[in-house]
Design goal:
alpha+beta; 2 strands; 56 residues; two-stranded antiparallel ribbon; 45% helix; globular
Length: 56
């Protein structure tokens, strides 16, 4: 949901909102990318997340 609202959120900001570590968020986003639910467009700093499917 966070990425649908703000696709330019950094892993640090996501971790802060979810009360998780940055590494924990990295693991989750990696799994979602492998599953095809989430993808990244652009660079790490100036890019954005794209929610492809499945998250409502």
């Amino acid at each position: 949901m966070l990425l649908k609202v703000n696709s330019r959120m950094t892993l640090d900001k996501i971790a802060e909102h979810l009360n998780m570590t940055k590494r924990g968020v990295q693991k989750v986003t990696n799994r979602l990318q492998e599953a095809g639910v989430l993808s990244r467009k652009g660079s790490k700093k100036a890019g954005e997340w794209i929610v492809n499917q499945g998250i409502k």
